[in-house]
Amino acid sequence: MANIKLMSDQLANMIAAGEVVEQPQHVIKELIENAIDAQAKHIVIDVKDEGLSLIKVEDDGIGMSEEDLKLSIQRHATSKIMNLSDLQSIRTLGFRGEALAAIASVSKLKIFSKTKDASGKMMEVESGEIKKIIDYPMNQGTIIEITHLFFNTPARFKFMKSSFQQQKYIRQLFVEMALSHPNLSFKLVENDKLYKQTSGSDDTFVVIEELFGKQYASATQKVKTSIAHTKIDLYLGSPDINVSTKSYLHTFVNQRYVKHFGIQENIISGYDGRLMTKRYPFVLCYITIDPQRIDINIHPQKLHVKLTNESVLTYHIRETIANHLNSSVRPLVRPMQVIDDQYDIQSLVFEETNDSFESNEVIQSKIPKMYYIGMLGGTYGLFQNHEGLFLVDAHAAQERVKYEYYQQKFDIKNVIQLQRMVAYPWTIDDAFIEDAIKHQELLNSFQFEVSKEGILSHPQLIKEKDLNHAIEIILQQHSLSMAQFKDHLSKDMSCKSSIKANQRINQNEFEQLLESLNVCDEPYHCPHGRPTIIQVTYQDIEKMFKRIV
After folding, report:
1. Following CA atoms 469, 475, 478, 481 in sequence, which dihedral angle do they give, to the nearest 10 degrees?
2. pTM of the model
């Protein structure tokens, strides 16, 4: 075994680089955070070849003196942490002392900087060693120019992502930084072409429009809440504005973009029943919390954090979103508002049912008053008013009405069990019957009793035709809670018993359906997330006919 020796500073810095500078976007992130901490108001990021040929970050912050320049590339040098208490209550972004030293060790680097009271300086660094420092005329601020990234560690190129992926990561980082600091102006230039820029207006809605477009900004609402001295600002996109990835879910803790599984999943849960499977909403979640209640040192790039009382916080976020969506009256979805990802952004007789809701509250109209004019394709009701044309999906609308009916009637805490004099016969295959007998205790917890002959008892609310299917739901997911069982069964029963395509219903039946839909908590979507009503305004129609531009 070799004798233990101290590593050289150069080797230590290169090891640190492997931890914090794995890809070009990590370099850019460190430089932007340093610029923000330097009180910059305007930050320009210029990249070529996805950062491998050039990374240049320019800011108008307080700048560095010649002495600061020399110390900036030394390992463990920092202006933000002087003692343990500073580490335990971090309020800055670029607090890692070895970041710039690590970057300098694997690149060719120039730093141009000027403070308010001193002349500008340029320092040239290669592989972590200072080559020269000279006077340089410039305005106050700092420019860091990195060329030939990883030139002295060629093995790193084997692990590089594709050019497309690198560009995607850099753009996503730019968006995250701009959203986390709406009071600052950001600009991204790629291969001498402007990608996007923000104005630093300090208005999050303006930043949303600048980054994603007017449609996103106009379809987003702000909701403020708090819990245990923690402030939460939510910018909730309409369920109609949804994408196929989770990349439009942004969480910020004390102005730092973070990835937090619990927060993300509870945001998605808040939209339950409003989005189709594998579709996700546009949401910005800003959390302001005491720094001493956060641990941000659990990830090299500080992307993941630990929060005190996380389960309480995440549950509160989910309930806030769900309650807001239930209570809000929002514009109906329009064909011209359909937005997708941009980062690369049998006939049945109509069954008349008494699906009424028990409520003493004054009914708030969520659906516009409109008048029936006919049916389209045996599936969609056509309505009109002074705003334009409305298409109503009969199946989706009745599915929502029946779903909420079952949800209200099926009291989880007081499920009444119906004892049958004669067993209801099985309609499922023998394997399921054997499984049901084997898991009698599990079925008992859902108020079912079964035998080889059939079903002996069951919850009173469940209709006979749905009994076998209800047992299948329980057996397929043994860890199902009563609340989850209720939700699964409500969705399935509402879907099976609702109007099917090409099933003709008359004007009176359609108008009754709309009245029932209007008192639903969520009238705009079926339980699976499909829209119930689509609006085509007169303006939309005039645009399609080129009457207006």
Report:
1. 20
2. 0.69
- pLDDT single digits (tens) 297-333: 544 445 656 776 788 899 999 999 999 988 776 667 6
Q: What is the pLDDT, as a whole number, of residue 446?
A: 84
CATH topology of domain 204-331: Ribosomal Protein S5; domain 2 (3.30.230)
Every domain of the chain and the residues it spans: 9-197, 204-331, 371-535
DSSP secondary-structure letter at 246?
G
Q: Select from 326, 233, 194 the least CA-distant residue to 272.
A: 326
* Bridge partners, 285 (sequence order): 234, 251
Which tokens sit at 466?
Answer: 């749905």
CB atoms within 10 A of CB 445: 13
Angstrom distance (rounded) from CA 144 to CA 110: 6
Q: Which of 389, 393, 395 is nearest to 370 (CA)?
A: 389
In this structure, are residues 252 and 286 in contact, taking their beta carbons and an 8 Å threshold? yes
Q: How would you classify the pairing of strands 280-281 and 242-243?
A: antiparallel
Q: In this structure, are residues 197 and 188 in contact, taking their beta carbons and an 8 Å threshold?
A: yes
In Å, the largest CA–CA distance within the chain is: 98
Alpha-carbon distances of 70 from 8, 16, 104, 144, 414, rounded to whole Å: 18, 19, 12, 14, 72
3-class secondary-structure state, position 337: helix
User: Region 255-273: what's the mean pLDDT?
Assistant: 91
- Cα 291 from Cα 469, distance rounded (Å): 51
pLDDT in tens, 341-391: 444 333 423 333 444 444 444 445 788 889 999 988 878 999 999 989 999
- Specify the CATH number of the domain 371-535: 3.30.1540.20
Other Cβ atoms within 10 Å of 215 Cβ, number: 17
Beta-sheet strands, E only, within 22-116: 42-48, 54-59, 108-114
Question: Which SS3 state, helix, strand or coil, does residue 509 take?
Answer: helix
Dist CA 138 CA 120 (whole Å): 6
